[in-house]
Structures are given as C-alpha cells and as structure tokens.
Design a protein that fits this description.
Elements: H1 5-8, E1 36-40, E2 50-55, E3 64-71, E4 81-84, E5 87-89, E6 91-95, E7 98-104, E8 112-120, E9 123-131, E10 138-141, H2 154-164, E11 185-187, E12 192-195, E13 198-199, E14 208-210, E15 217-219, E16 224-230, E17 241-248, E18 251-258, E19 260-261, E20 268-269, E21 274-277, E22 289-295, E23 298-299, H3 303-306
Parallel strand pairs: 10-12
Antiparallel strand pairs: 1-9, 2-3, 3-7, 4-5, 4-8, 6-7, 8-9, 11-14, 12-13, 14-22, 15-21, 16-17, 16-20, 17-18, 18-22, 19-21, 22-23
Bound molecules: zinc ion (ZN).
C-alpha cells in the first residue's frame, strides 16, 4: 500500500522520462577508478593527488551515488567540495585520507549524464557519471468522492521536514542494512501513479512497504539515533505513529503507520534493535510497514543499502 505521505513531501519537479536505456545490469557496486573525463591539475602537483571513485559502476535512477575522494598523505586537512549540477553536497571524512559525499538519485530525475565536480586543495576533477533509466512500476488509482481523505497537519509536516534536513557528521551505520520487518514486500520503491487517469508527476513511492502482520516487530535496519517519535495523538494524522532514525552523514530512515513504539527520542539504537510494531495508523488501509530511506533529503532505493551496502 502507498499512503498520501508520499505525495506531500515532494518538491522535485517532474522532468519526464528519458528514452529507456538498453543497459539492464543492476546495481553493480564495484569501485570505478577512472570515471573522470576531464582533469584540472595545478602545475607541478601529481595527478594522483586527488583520486575520485564513484560507485556503483552503472548507477540507475533511485541509486545512491557514493563519491569517494582519496587524498594524499598530509593533504587531508582540506575538506573537499563536491557539487552535482548546481547543488553542493555534504562531504564527510570516512578514513584518515578519505572523504565521501553521497548523492541521491530519484525517479523524478532524468537519466543520462550527471556532471560531478570535486574540488580540494586548489585541485579540481570534473566527472561525468552516466545514470541509467530504470523502469518503475505504475499503478492506476481511481479516487471517488472525497476519498483523497486525510490531510497532514502542519505539526507532522514540520517535524518530518526537520528530520529529513539532518546532516549529522557522525556515521553510525556499518555495513549492509537489515530488513526492518519479516513481512513480504508489498510495494517496492519508486512506484509511479495515475490518479483518475492523470499522471501524478511529483509522486513516487518513497520507500518500501512490508506486509507484516499487525504488531509484528519492526527493527532498526542499521544503527542510529532516534530523533523523531511522532504519534497520532500529537498530530501525526497521515504518517501515523512514526519513528525516525538518524544514521548520520545525511542518511535517515523513517518508519510509518506503527501500532506501537518501543523507543524514545534520543535513544541510540543498534542494528536489529526493536523500535516498534507494524500497524495501520495514519493514512493506511491495512497493516503494513512503510520504510523510507533518505539521503541528503531525497528518498532513495533502499535495495542497494540492504544488499552489498554502502560503506
Ligand atoms: Zn509505502
């Protein structure tokens, strides 16, 4: 099931589907060491001083681009700057001579060339990453009367917006994410919709739904800090009872429609720790867990985070 939550948080503009690409390979995660096409190197400084790797090797819409910058010994004092188009992304140090930026891609974007620029210590690399088109399933929904139903309260919108804006420097996750509920996946990430025959251009399913039975355990897929606990009684009318976990470095998970909550704001949770139970609170027509994974404010496909992982 998909709740109206997915439609109220979008600010992205629909840019239309590009022509489907012929490549079909799924989420390769091998490191790509020579993706850059042009290089600007200051005179006298070896080209190896600023090495950049982008994974996955053949990204598709919905994937998270991981831009890893390897600095030479002694040059890591300067935090590199990473831009994609006209957006600047947060860069965090992940090891003594290594920095990283995570760039989300979504079904609302065009496939094709993504120019990424990395600047550090007076040096610059211009990369061109090819993001492939991915076919997302389409649902056709007929709404009769005022079935559009519940409207989010200003309170829940404010809390969720603040939650998605978190860019905590500390990295709390480690390795692949766990499945947050044992129920079967009922709706995958990225599903697009028509409402009464009209394409909802800003809508995509911003997460994965698990059809777990009512009350079945919901666990933290990765370590993090509980930074959002929202309850129907406080105004979480559409999201329902909600838990938000900050994994750090711009990566956050949100869990919706819970029937109970086992954590409180400020708690540090481990991967696998119980955080709540599956429910049908808020704008939901039956028990299910909606897990949304956001990277720098955009909902990304959790699948590559579950399998393989993003280190
Ligand atoms: Zn959902």
């Amino acid at each position: 099931m998909i709740t109206p939550v997915d439609t109220i948080t979008s600010k992205n503009k629909w840019q239309g589907f590009a022509v489907p690409r012929l490549t079909t390979r799924l989420g390769a995660t091998a490191l790509l060491t020579s993706i850059f096409t042009t290089t600007t190197v200051a005179w006298g400084i070896p080209a190896s001083a600023l090495q950049v790797q982008v994974t996955p090797l053949k990204p598709k819409l919905g994937d998270t681009l991981s831009v890893i910058i390897n600095m030479e010994n002694g040059s890591s004092a300067t935090v590199p700057k990473v831009t994609q188009g006209n957006k600047t992304y947060p860069v965090f140090q992940i090891s003594p001579n290594q920095y990283r930026a995570l760039i989300p891609t979504t079904p609302l974007q065009r496939s094709g060339e993504k120019p990424i620029r990395v600047m550090a210590g007076g040096k610059q690399r211009n990369l061109s990453v090819q993001v492939g088109w991915r076919k997302f399933p389409v649902q056709r929904i007929t709404l009769r009367g005022n079935k559009a139903g519940l409207r989010a309260t200003a309170y829940e919108l404010k809390r969720v917006k603040e939650f998605k804006a978190l860019r905590t420097p500390q990295k709390l996750w480690n390795g692949p994410f766990l499945r947050p509920n044992k129920g079967r996946v009922s709706t995958i990430y990225g599903v697009r919709r028509y409402y009464n025959g009209k394409f909802a251009k800003n809508y995509y399913h911003r997460g994965v739904d698990y059809a777990g039975w009512s009350g079945s355990p919901v666990i933290a897929p990765a370590a993090g800090r509980v930074v959002l606990v929202g309850k129907v009684s406080q105004g979480f009318r559409v999201h329902g009872n909600t838990v938000g976990v900050d994994h750090g470095q711009g990566v956050v998970s949100i869990f919706l429609h819970l029937n109970r909550i086992n954590v409180k704001e400020g708690d540090i949770v481990k991967a696998g720790q119980l955080i709540g139970g599956v429910g049908s609170t808020g704008a939901s027509t039956g028990p299910h867990l909606h897990w949304g994974l956001y990277v720098n404010g955009q909902s990304v496909n959790p699948v590559p985070w579950r399998f393989g992982g993003i280190k």
